[in-house]
Task: structure prediction
Amino acid sequence: MIRDAREADMVGVQAIYAHYVLHEMASFEEAPPSADELLSRRASVLGLNLPYLVAEMDGRVVGYSYASRYRSQTAYRLTIEDSVYVADEMRGHGIGTALLQALIARCEAGPWRQMIGIIGHTGGAASIALHKRLGFQPVGTVKSVGFKFGQWCDTDYMQRSLGVGDTNLPT
Result:
């Protein structure tokens, strides 16, 4: 079940995210943030009227997704960035697809016109495939912008239009 994240879900979100921070290049953070810090981040997302979703299975949070500002300057106000994380042991079960589909649908109901996926290049093949399945196109790679686990890491940028995209001017 995909639903809006609640405050109580952030303990589960923190456990999922900690795995990525400690073991993978999906996040460039190097120390897992606390559940309280993630509560604060969730409040910031919700404060911008952006969605923060969880996937729940048998009463347990098994994944989450949210949209955030792509950049803070006002000219970027119609462009958002997606984030999707799935519990390590639940990968390959369609949870990431369900989360990103729901996130896209929620964002298309708002004023946003473009969604950007920024993917840690090392080990990001599954995330790239997920984004491609849901209509994202590769738009570039930024080389050696992260340094984690004793190695340089690239980021791949992918983009998709939301709703009418850039076919008309915003009101």
Notes: The first strand starts at residue 2 and ends at 4. The CA atoms of residues 119 and 154 lie 8 Å apart.
